[in-house]
Structure formats: C-alpha cells, structure tokens
Design the sequence.
C-alpha cells in the first residue's frame, strides 16, 4: 500500500498522479472557458446597446437632414 494515498501498489501511483494533474488542468481550462464565455456574452450585450444607440442616432440625424432640406 502506498504511504501517500493508501492505494494498493498494484495500481500505478504515477498514473494516478498524472490523471489527477490532468483533471486539475481540465478544471482550470473549463473555468477559463466559462470566464471567457461570460466575457464574450457581456461584450455582445454592450455591442447590442451600442448598435441600438447608433440606430437611434442615425434616425435623429436623418430627421435633422430632412428638416434642413425642407428649409
């Protein structure tokens, strides 16, 4: 039995460590992906607001130009 993890020595201790390290890396990567997805979603929301604001501004400018043309 391994003193570090109480696993029978039949099981490859190095392999167990490797698997745990890979799982840790995967978890870190998954967390990073979740963060980046949330960041992307926030940026998309900001862009949607900017687009809507720009559309409103374009309408106001078009109306202003029409008034200038009729005067």
Sequence:
């Amino acid at each position: 039995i391994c003193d570090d993890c109480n696993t029978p020595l039949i099981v490859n201790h190095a392999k167990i460590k490797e698997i745990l390290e890979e799982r840790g890396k995967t978890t870190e990567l998954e967390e990073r992906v979740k963060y980046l997805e949330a960041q992307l979603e926030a940026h998309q929301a900001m862009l949607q607001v900017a687009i809507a604001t720009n559309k409103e501004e374009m309408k106001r400018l078009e109306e202003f130009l029409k008034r200038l043309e009729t005067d």
